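Chain A, query sequence.
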Amino acid sequence: TTIEATGMQALLAFVDAAAIKTWWKAKSAVVQPRPGGLFAVEWEPGSLGQDEKLGPLGGVLAGVLDKAMAGHFVYFGSLHWLTPQGEVFGPTRLEVDVFSKGDPRRKPSELRVRGTGFQTGERWNRYFERARAQWEKLLPEVARFCETLPAEQAETSVSPLGGPYLAQTVLDGRRIS
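Chain A, predicted structure.
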């Protein structure tokens, strides 16, 4: 989806616990915004709806932030969803990419969210169907949230992702050798 926000604003929505609680309607969230940092989101049972095959949606999604570059992308891996009924779906991966014509400080940005997993079967197929439907509903919420964030706040919070040298090199438009 295209959003009227910078790449920095878009990524802040995914690496800030307060942001996640706002647009994702989470009960709680813990995010350590650095590679290797913890990523955990909790919802009330049934708060994300009910599915005839999976039961109440909600529960806990937890994993690690395993790769990031300020203003460009953040990837979460080893994600596991613990359903309210105690079933576990995982490991999965969530990749958030932002494209802003090479400058993550300019608007607009294109936000791409991609989820992948490594399991198969009827319940997994249903899980992926529900996840796709949830993201289709969530992307407009993420966009609205990002468009209200002060750009300066996002820059301060997101700049350290991917290491200070690498992030600043990319932001300055210098070659990486």
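Helices lie at 7-15, 17-23, 122-148, 151-158, 164-172. The mean pLDDT is 89.
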